[in-house]
Design a protein that fits this description.
6-stranded mixed β-sheet; D-Maltodextrin-Binding Protein, domain 2; 3 domains; Arc Repressor Mutant, subunit A; alpha/beta; 5-stranded mixed β-sheet
């Protein structure tokens, strides 16, 4: 089908090209051969009278015209996908759909671990794909790459439906052989000890608790930087270091590891975990079914 001289099938190819910025990767994404995608790019260049993608060193970058096209085109393709692919009805027992959820290892441990058996019972053909955090979690939602985003409220997108999943307190965790934890920590003792903290993705983004503690403007001895929340507990064992962890996660590990869990020696506002879906999926019964399972699992103590 053509619209104003453009084969509309080329819009899907263009979206893939502008998103991936690589002809081979874009071709695989939309199930075309590399030669077919190269031909599509040639026709698109002719139609728009612009190179769209140009090589700079070993990379392909967007021209200014392509930059203007990228976002409205992405939203158009998402709307088409939602209209064509979504259904007002969702039959879990018959579905073989793949759902992509953006969530941290913490959320996977304390929430999604409880969702997995629910899916196995209610929808054995459904595939759940969990993708790890990015430096900008909302970007994966905006791009349409995920069905659901679970993130601290401060990282959520203001442009899409948001629901509070639960609130979480933070606690101090350390090795059971750490003499400093034989009594409740004072604020001074907390800052005097060495700390294990977590950083994420290439941007080394800090966790919610790190941002809150930084507001206190006190020197802090960060002695070890861990790549994930779930790696922190084992890194504390046989050391005099402490970590600040989500209460649910800390309690999980304290059942099986030689750890002590204490309240923070100062006030910290609770972490608000929210769940989001792209606004174009507002009528997607499958997304709402999965969101309901996650909300049920989040009430698990």
């Amino acid at each position: 089908m053509r619209f104003k001289g453009l084969d509309l099938n080329l819009l899907i190819a263009l979206d893939a090209l502008l998103t991936e910025r690589n002809v081979s990767v874009a071709a695989r994404k939309v199930f075309l051969s590399q030669s077919a995608m190269s031909g599509a790019l040639s026709r698109l260049r002719e139609h728009f009278g612009d190179e769209l993608l140009v090589p700079v060193g070993r990379k392909m970058v967007l021209t200014s015209a392509a930059e203007l096209l990228a976002e409205p085109l992405r939203q158009l393709v998402l709307q088409i996908e939602a209209t064509v692919g979504a259904s007002l009805k969702f039959e879990p027992l018959k579905s073989t759909r793949t759902f992509v959820v953006h969530a941290s290892d913490y959320i996977t441990e304390v929430v999604l671990n409880h969702v997995v058996p629910m899916i196995a019972q209610e929808a054995p053909g459904v595939v759940l794909e969990i993708v790890p955090p990015l430096s900008d979690p909302a970007a994966s939602l905006e791009s349409g790459d995920v069905d659901l985003l679970i993130t601290p409220e401060s990282y959520a997108s203001e442009h899409h439906p948001t629901e509070l999943l639960y609130e979480e307190q933070h606690v101090v965790v350390g090795w059971s052989g750490n003499p400093a934890l034989s009594v409740p920590l004072t604020v001074d003792a907390f800052f005097a000890l060495g700390h294990v903290v977590t950083r994420f993705a290439a941007a080394r983004a800090v966790a919610f608790s790190e941002s809150e503690i930084a507001r206190m403007n006190r020197p802090r001895r960060i002695e070890l930087v861990a790549p994930s929340f779930t790696s922190v507990p084992k890194l504390l064992i046989a050391t005099q270091r402490i970590g600040v962890m989500h209460r649910r996660l800390a309690q999980n590990y304290a059942h099986t590891l030689p750890l002590i869990v204490q309240p923070l020696p100062f006030e910290m506002k609770p972490l608000r975990e929210v769940i989001q879906y792209h606004q174009v999926r507002a009528a997607d019964a499958g997304v709402h079914w999965l969101k309901g399972l996650i909300q049920r699992a989040a009430t698990h103590p």
